[in-house]
Amino acid sequence: MSFPSGERISFPDLQDRLKEIIPGYQSWLEQQGLGSRRIAKLVCMARHIVTWLAVSGIEIAAFDIRGIAGFLSHDCTCPGRFQSPPLRRTREWANRFLTWLLDTGQTELPSLIVEGGKHVDAFISDLSGQGYSDCTMQNRSTVCRHFVVWLYCSDLVLDQIDDGVIRRFLEHECTCSCPHFFRRPSRFTGSSGVRISIERFADFLACAGVMEPWRTEEAPPAARNVFVDSYLDWMHRHRGARERTICIHEWHLNRDVLPDLGDDPASYDVSAIRAAFISWAQTRSSCQLAGMATVLRGYLRYLGANGFCNPALVAAVPSVRIEPQADLPRYVTDSEVEALIASCDTATSIGMRDRAIMLLLARLALRAGDIPALRLKDIDWEQARIRVSGKSRRSEAMPLPQDCGDALKIYILHGRPRVDSDFVFLRSCAPHRALSSGRIVSETVRRAKERAGIDGEGLPAAHLFRHSRATNLLRGGASLETVATILRHESIKTTTLYARVDTRMLLEVAQPWPEDEP
Known about the structure:
With 518 residues, the chain is mostly helical. The protein has helices at 11-31, 36-56, 65-73, 87-103, 111-129, 134-153, 163-171, 192-207, 226-239, 243-261, 270-281, 286-305, 334-342, 349-364, 370-373, 402-415, 438-452, 463-475, 480-487, 492-495, 503-509, and strands spanning 379-380, 385-389, 395-399.
């Protein structure tokens, strides 16, 4: 910071300024109960600062932490005999004098620091809304205030933050301090935790519009294809496809179809489609090839219906034969299902959440992806029903068993974080957002299998409850139609897979093996 240099102050004027300031500072020090020798040293330092300010033509009201830096680095020619204590002690005593000036209103915090402090407070308020602990918020507030002070001392502003500025902050030799705003820690290291706090603060400022997005793209985004984009939008709006399904279609179209067939649908023909399939068949399994055929068939059907290509090209996509699944559905008994549910420690919020999840999986045979999508509005407590959005976003109301409802109530009232979110199940650690995907649910079931001592080798994760529910119902005498309704299968052919594990029914219809003729 550069200060305006005025004319050299006269000796009588200097004495008047010292008499105006020093007695009040000395009285303030005495009220703090300091010893006489310490007060004498602090007063001597204050006289030196006031003299330097007067010689430099700087008003007391303009003195701040940049002024301290200027005082510490000045080549002293000040009138009077002043001692030069160690630099660390000089900085400490100068900060004490600045504290008194702030306390008495003779100077104010710089506007840039005040503005930065307001943004730090807004950032901490946002963290509080996400459920972070008081300790975490205190640590991040300290780091961000430190960063604001360092920016001011480095003659930088918030909208200049980028990766290089953050790196300089992490590597700087810290002497930062600002009375009434930030107290310098005893030791500063640019640890990964400090970097995370600053990066989150910068992200918050970018989202709030205080600065431009600071993260640089590692690679430019790939060019979008207007036909693919319109097809994916149609799938979302009119077919009710979920985000995961849309991502799979987008991945296959951009990775396989467009490179081999081209971007212009008008140029597609039968020979190009067959040649592409021959190429794919050399490196893909039959299951992968069948999935790619489904994606291409849907894409061509959309293009043909909208006049972008010949509609008859759909018939050019060959059918892929997949051998029927030889493996039987893997399941556990009803008693093992209860052992999995009982393994949850309901004395903790995580245990309350996990027990509610596994009861829904076990009693309603939900899919893993159904759990993260549940919202509070989907639960009808009066009618004891819960609405589940299944595949293709088909919404179905299902009866809510008593034990499931009790577990949900306990979790929502006593275990669920108090944050502004409509999703039922939230992350246990801040930020308390909805579960990201069904993989989190599958991991919950895997941990339960370990706790219950169930051998998990060869068993599915979250689908274990679904398989077990269907299998045990069939073995108990339930019809395929009943099981298909519970599993929400569109076709009963899908449900017949579970009939292969009902050995008692199979024994009734099995024909005896013909005896060997003599």
